[in-house]
Amino acid sequence: MDTTTLKVLVERAEKSKIGQVDFNNLSFGNVFTDHMLVCDYRNGVWETPKVMPYQPISLEPSAKIFHYGQSIFEGMKAYKDADGATWLFRPLENQKRLNISAHRMAIPELPEEYFMEGLKALLRTDEQWIPTSEGSSLYIRPFMLASGTGFHASPANEFKFIIACAPSGSYFSGKVKVLIEEKYSRSANGGVGYAKAGGNYAGQFYPTQLANEKGYQQVIWTDDNNHEYIEEAGAMNIFIRINDTLITGPTSDRILDGITRKSILEIAKDEGIPVEVRKITVSEVVEASKNGTLKEMFGAGTAAVVSPISSFGYRDADYDLPELENSYASRLKKRITDIQYNKAEDKFGWRYKV
Amino acid sequence: MDTTTLKVLVERAEKSKIGQVDFNNLSFGNVFTDHMLVCDYRNGVWETPKVMPYQPISLEPSAKIFHYGQSIFEGMKAYKDADGATWLFRPLENQKRLNISAHRMAIPELPEEYFMEGLKALLRTDEQWIPTSEGSSLYIRPFMLASGTGFHASPANEFKFIIACAPSGSYFSGKVKVLIEEKYSRSANGGVGYAKAGGNYAGQFYPTQLANEKGYQQVIWTDDNNHEYIEEAGAMNIFIRINDTLITGPTSDRILDGITRKSILEIAKDEGIPVEVRKITVSEVVEASKNGTLKEMFGAGTAAVVSPISSFGYRDADYDLPELENSYASRLKKRITDIQYNKAEDKFGWRYKV
Ligand SMILES: Cc1ncc(COP(=O)(O)O)c(C=O)c1O
Ligand SMILES: Cc1ncc(COP(=O)(O)O)c(C=O)c1O
Predict the structure, then answer these.
(1) Which of A242, A326, B165, B270 has its CA 20 to 30 A from that of A56?
(2) In chain A, what is the straight-line distance between the N-terminal and C-terminal CA atoms, in Å?
(3) From CA A188, how far away is CA A230, in angstroms rounded?
(4) What residues form DSSP beta bridges with B37?
């Protein structure tokens, strides 16, 4: 059988806004490019994706996204190398995970071709928006929402798949203080924590605000049962180094299967770092901090890349992490970003040229 | 200090759609009235609410509702009595719960006056949309969504509060078969289950679809820990009658504090029915069904009122409930709806005239 080649439609913006943007002072995710990709699901099929001018979305007041939170998203980045070529990092992993999330949230899956061809058409149209300054990139936000209507708690019959992009600087500035959470939880066993479902994130806002008020930037989520195990750091997977061993928890239905996490695991093995994927208890981390064997903690995710944690709070005490010369965090961050920006060999085959 | 009287703005629709609606064949939540109430939160304040023609909502692609599920809702009904007067049922309970949900979801709370005056102005404008046929009512959907923008997982700084209404018939037709769920969960300890947060509902769609495929209309949610306790029936609270005792679980951070539930509890006490509010195990329900002491199960909620359950599935077996002459479900449903429709005395002071 022949593969039909999908023809993405392109309607260009009349005027570019790019002249208004200060590319040397980019914050994260606040400025948007000239175009977006839109693909509608109607009558049981995904229609032809279309690149169009970035513009407001109009929805019925009874659209199910507004009432039942039927929405999912992804987060990716496009990088420019020194020769001006555009690169993505493991984009098919995002495409697959989008469909894993879709499945759990009763949203129709999007064919790979629609995702990849739509994304490439958008990136080609907005190519000049990909920043080149150190540490910056084009943050890409694919998302799906229920546009179908009705005040009935059941899946919608119409959806929108959209990709919007924001030239962005770094997510965090400097090191991060985190609080190990013992009251609030991010996700349930048998719940939707492993999906990038919108509602998972709004549920974190209030506990994170409480942590912010106490001087912490992020919450470390623990299991909702006994708050015994360390699970995620805000919207990042978490890594812990005890002595020379790098440890991260296994994924589960409560934990997002992060692409940065699994890439870091492979790079660490390649670097000869001893790696363990196993459950991490809060008490062992506190113990290791007390006896001096806790060397590093860092978060890993597309937006924040590798984010070293400078201290953690637990039950009214703060535990500082040592400042290391040649930390795993800095080595691993350099290896992964060198691949992403096409500054080094990519023995894993992760880089994807647009 | 004086109470400022809020003046709700009203912009009437040029033409009514009411002639197109068949009021004798109303489904639930699919037809919408001519107007809606809109109130915007900007620069730290809720602006003046406005009744305006029912119309699409336009939002930026980066509005946080689309990405992080920052949204909440309520569900109420307006009833017409034989004299044509309009009634609400305990509306201040919905107003308070909206703010409880808002607080948990990091959404600014809405002053009582904005809610009540906005709601009344809308109902007066769309008064002729309140159906009068037996069992039908005007379903009212207040909701709040994050309209503020940015690809950063943090609370929005702009929100919309909207009320839309749908003349509706009954939610379920006939009795309901339910499945006791042991794999998927609705909410976590320390999570947002007690809030009417959008994401809680989309998370139920897929498990409910799986149950539908097996011939059940609804899922009975159990705790996410050991699936040992019975918690809710879809978007209803659940009641169980063993011998002559009516039992419902206590509310918790996983269970919505339903207004129908607490009204039913008061009416049952008033009826002299022995009532227990305590945790209910799955095994005692199965046991009671086997030994013939399980007399009734029913769901309770604004949309479905009191919904008798005809049988429940558990681990590949189905357990039928007996058909009773003078069931608690029918007695309690009659008492509550007689109050709602102003057909009987309201000794509790629940009815609210618009
Ligand atoms: C909850 C959560 N954990 C972890 C991650 C990291 O995943 P990835 O490395 O694929 O970006 C993300 C964000 O993307 C997330 O939302
Ligand atoms: C999860 C859940 N439980 C119970 C209820 C019943 O609450 P109420 O009686 O206030 O409508 C609802 C719906 O409103 C609900 O969404």
Answers:
(1) B165
(2) 26
(3) 14
(4) B51, B163
Closest by CA to B201, choosing from A197, A225, A185, A256, is A197
- Total residues found in chain B within this entry: 354
Lookup: tokens for A14: 């009349």
Q: What is the pTM of this model?
A: 0.97
ipTM of the complex: 0.97
- What does DSSP assign to residue A313? E
Tens of pLDDT, residue by residue, chain A (354 residues): 445 689 999 999 999 999 999 999 999 999 999 999 999 999 999 999 999 999 999 999 999 999 999 999 999 999 999 999 999 999 999 999 999 999 999 999 999 999 999 999 999 999 999 999 888 999 999 999 999 999 999 999 999 999 999 999 988 777 799 999 999 999 999 999 999 999 999 999 999 999 999 999 999 999 999 999 999 998 999 999 999 999 999 999 999 999 999 999 999 999 999 999 999 999 999 999 999 999 999 999 999 999 999 999 999 999 999 999 999 999 999 999 999 999 999 999 999 999
Question: Which atom of ligand 2 is closest in space to residue B302's alpha carbon?
Answer: 11
The best mutation among B137, B264, B302 to test binding of ligand 2, ranked by most ligand atoms within 8 Å of the C-beta, falls on: B302
Among B111, B338, B72, which Cα is nearest to B198's?
Answer: B72
A3 secondary structure, DSSP code? P
Phi, psi of A173 (to 5 degrees): -110, 120
At B266, give phi and psi (nearest 5°).
-70, -40
Q: Strands, E, within chain B: which ranges?
A: 9-10, 35-42, 45-46, 50-53, 57-59, 71-73, 76-80, 86-89, 137-146, 159-168, 176-180, 218-222, 230-233, 236-242, 245-248, 275-277, 294-301, 305-314, 317-320, 351-353
Could you tell me the domains of chain A?
9-168 (3.30.470.10), 176-340 (3.20.10.10)
Atom number in ligand 1 closest to CA B153: 16
- C-alpha to C-alpha distance for A171 and A173, rounded to whole angstroms: 7
Give the CA count within 13 Å in the CB-facing half-sphere of B68: 27
Question: Using the 8-state DSSP alphabet, how is residue B229 labeled?
Answer: B
Instruction: Quickly list DSSP for B94-131.
Output: HHHHHHHHHHHTT-PPPPHHHHHHHHHHHHHHTGGGS-
Distance A77 CA to ligand 1 centre (A): 13
Closest Cβ opposite residue A224 in set B151, B188, B200: B188
- Taking the C-alpha atoms of residue A201 and residue A116, their distance in angstroms, rounded to an integer, is 26
Helix axes A259-270, A91-104, angle to 10 degrees: 140
| Contact criterion met (CB below 8 Å) for B272 and B296 | no
